[in-house]
Design a protein that fits this description.
binds riboflavin; six-stranded antiparallel beta barrel; binds magnesium ion; alpha/beta; 14 strands
């Protein structure tokens, strides 16, 4: 997949088929758009193009309460690549771009910039200054400029309409099994391992890797989770605590993962944590020994959940890999 920017336009292609959106989360609704885009491009011997924005428009338009992302740009790029797109156009979302009238946006980017033949959009897509542009306007502009508009209906899971807003709500509530259904993969947090307090191994007998949390990433509800950790191309089962370690009175939110049957130093390494299921709330214990006994129980429960999952799952890829990961579990 080729990543292009506004400066690379205009582009002369054979038969460009495009889809456009913020695509935060690359959930099943977005995946339906990508699938249709790729299918239609292939049918014409043309090119499948995804158009997205960075930063997310709500990070620019609403800086006082910036949106927390389901996917960082890096994750989004990997997932769109995996969906089979040929090009990804990343438009820098600036106040200038936000001020473009819907008609001007279509004419400048879609028509003069890409000369698209087909445009695939979700049923609720809105764009342009004041979000004035919608599917109806796109159809009118399609007739004027000579491109076909294909509208994809909402995707439903358990009777729920899949949307980034719903995924954000569920992540905030810690409902990770349902989140995984809407995303088509588990929710993942990636980042660098940083030094912690050094209490885990010495005081509790459960060494943990402390993850540096990204400021723009949506953090799930505090608590203890069964997780799968990926690094160096391998996947390991484990448990994570996301919280303030009330037993020790810590001040800052920490994300710590204990990886089963793993001995080794992860400082400085990039790891990804897939949150499979929330186990319990974080609690204040009256001694490190009591906490350690609870963590032992958490590990037992997580092992059971993760073992039954790896038996069920044929597709064990979390969708963030470049395809060369070993599938060891
Ligand atoms: N700390 C708490 O104060 N309360 C908890 O309920 C708690 N649960 C944890 C569960 C797991 C699986 C892990 C790995 C850690 C947990 N911790 C909890 C964090 C613990 O205090 C921390 O790992 C050590 O203090 C080292 O930083
Ligand atoms: Mg630690």
């Amino acid at each position: 997949m080729k990543i292009i920017r506004r400066e690379d336009l205009p582009l002369k292609l054979r038969y460009p088929v495009a889809t456009i959106g913020n695509f935060d989360g690359v959930h099943l609704g977005h995946q339906a758009l990508f699938k249709e885009t790729v299918k239609r491009a292939r049918a014409q011997g043309g090119e499948a193009i995804a158009i997205t924005f960075d930063p997310h428009p709500l990070q620019v338009l609403r800086p006082e309460r910036p949106l927390k992302l389901i996917c960082t740009l890096e994750q989004k790029i990997k997932l769109i690549q995996k969906a089979g797109l040929d090009y990804l156009l990343i438009l820098e979302f600036t106040p200038e771009l936000a001020a473009l009238e819907a008609e001007d946006f279509v004419e400048e980017i879609l028509v003069r910039g890409l000369q698209i033949k087909e445009l695939i959009v979700g049923y609720d897509y809105r764009f342009g200054r004041g979000r004035r542009g919608d599917v109806e306007l796109l159809k009118i502009l399609g007739k004027r400029f000579g491109f076909e508009v294909v509208v994809i209906p909402p995707q439903k899971i358990n009777g729920l309409t899949v949307s980034s807003t719903l995924v954000r709500e569920l992540v905030t509530k810690g409902e990770m099994s349902l989140v995984a259904k809407l995303l088509g993969r588990p929710y993942q947090i990636c980042g660098q391992v940083v030094p912690g307090h050094g209490r885990g191994r010495k005081l509790l007998g459960f060494p943990t890797a402390n993850l540096k949390l990204s400021r723009e990433k949506l953090v799930p509800k505090e608590g203890v989770y069964a997780v799968e950790v990926t690094f160096n191309g391998k996947r390991y089962p484990g448990v994570m605590n996301l919280g303030y370690n009330p037993t020790f009175g810590d001040q800052y939110l920490s994300a710590e993962v204990h990886i089963f049957d793993f001995e080794g130093d992860l400082y400085g390494k990039e790891i990804c944590i897939a949150l499979i299921q929330r186990l319990r709330d974080e609690k204040k214990f009256s001694s490190p020994e009591e906490l350690a006994a609870q963590i032992a129980q958490d590990c037992q429960k997580a092992r059971e959940i993760l073992a039954s999952r790896s038996k069920d799952l044929k597709e064990v890829d979390h969708g963030m890999s470049e395809g060369k990961e070993s599938q060891a579990l």
